[in-house]
Amino acid sequence: MRGTIITKTSVKDFNGALFQPFVISRGSSTSLANLLLTVKLADGTCGYGEAAAASYAGETREKTSRNLEKTAQWLEGKDVADYTGLFFELEQRLETNRSALACVEIALLDALGKTLGIPFWKFFGRKLSPIKTDITVVIGTAAQAEEFTLRMLKKGLNAFKIKIGVDYDEDFKRITIVKKAAPKSRIYLDANCAYDADTGLKFFKKIFSAGIIPQVIEQPVEKEDYDGLKFLTKKLSVPVCADESAYSVDDAVKILKNGYASAINIKLMKLGILRAREIYFLAKSKNVKLMMGEMLESEISSLAAAHFAGGLGDFDFIDLDTPLFIKDRLTKGWNGLCLDGTYNLSAIKQGLGVSPASAKATASYPA
User: Fold this and answer.
1) 117 Rama sector, left if φ>0, alpha if ψ -120 to 50, beta otherwise
2) C-beta of residue 245 within 8 angstroms of C-beta of residue 258
3) Strands 27-41 and 46-51
4) Can you tell me the distance from the alpha carbon of 119 to that of 176, in angstroms, rounded to the nearest whole number?
5) Which of 328, 364, 348 is nearest to 109 (CA)?
6) Among 245, 252, 236, which Cα is nearest to 288's?
7) What phi and psi, each to the nearest 5 degrees, are found at residue 325?
8) What is the dihedral of CA 14, 16, 20, 24, to 10 degrees?
9) Which of 32, 118, 204, 288 could form a disulfide with 16 if both were Cys (CB 3.0 to 4.6 A apart)?
């Protein structure tokens, strides 16, 4: 039997508490509740993938778990060396469950990278670009935002993604106080579909009038409101980024063709690796800016995204900070996500660089 044949698979819950609630305009999370796929090869190599279901796309953890179980059984006996063929088949099997698709793709490339003795990023490029994430300022009080910002500044983080969209006046206070606390830092704003176009324009003009110019405004309107997205893209002098509105290659083509947005957020969990790569090159061909983002994910899939961005290079915004919110480290091995948000990918010699921790670990990234 060839050493690259998949001989065993498993799907397990992959959970972890957060240091603080992760609050956005659509809701709040107090813990990470994901799924872990393990694929074992005949030579003993194990590859790992993580799925974080996208609720705004109609995914559930239960549905994702069922699909992963079925797909894991189907994978047994397949040869990971034929990963491109497997990817195309997986595209058909998991068309409506992209987080499961991404999870399987990540596990396969992790296993193959380990077998070949190459880091994950080399599947995407020959030269590694530096990756440093922003940090999210979740929805809360202005005082909480100030305290958090000052604490993160001391760690060396210098880009703050402020979640907005629940309370107009409180959002303005929080943005103002973060900018005052970190005057030299970059500011990103993320509304997670909270506004209509007119309300958004009024709010962002107020921010600009206060002398605060964010580097990017992410998903200000509902995901299907492409006209509203285009309206704000035309009216605002800063990049407007499509996230929920860019859930597929079809969506991306529509955005690029019609000028609906001036930036696109690529997430492996909403696209899978193949589609994410296609959108990357399409966006680059149209000189549209790119953000590398994620759902609420541990180091496993966050690292996959960091490798993806580092291998391809030329991303304008990096938003891969959720491992910094997890209370207990869920992985072992590589420990290169620095407290300042830098992903030290050059230290990784094969695969993703991490594996699941066998037991509860000490918190590595104290908030």
Assistant:
1) left
2) no
3) antiparallel
4) 41
5) 348
6) 252
7) -95, -5
8) 10
9) 32
pTM, 2 dp: 0.95
Matching residue, tokens 């083509």: 253
Residue 289 region by backbone torsions, left for phi larger than 0, else alpha for psi between -120 and 50, else beta: beta
Among residues 362, 367, 289, which one has the least CA distance to residue 328? 362
Residue with the two structure tokens 């943005």:
175
Per-residue pLDDT of the chain (367 residues; tens, 9 = 90+): 689 999 999 999 999 999 998 988 777 788 999 999 999 999 999 999 999 998 877 889 999 999 999 999 999 999 999 999 999 999 999 999 999 999 999 999 999 999 999 999 999 999 999 999 999 999 999 999 999 999 999 999 999 999 999 898 999 999 999 999 999 999 999 999 999 999 999 999 999 999 999 999 999 999 999 999 999 999 999 999 999 999 999 999 999 999 999 999 999 999 999 999 999 999 999 999 999 999 999 999 999 999 999 999 999 999 999 999 999 889 998 777 888 999 999 999 999 999 999 644 444 554 5
**Separation between Cα atoms, residue 247 and residue 284, nearest integer Å:** 17
* Structure tokens that stand for 153 in this block: 């500044």
Q: How many other CB atoms are found less than 10 A from the CB of residue 50?
A: 30
What span, in angstroms and rounded, lies between the C-alpha atoms of 252 and 323?
28
Cα-flanking dihedrals φ and ψ of residue 102, to 5°? -60, -40
CA dist 347 and 118 (Å) reads 12
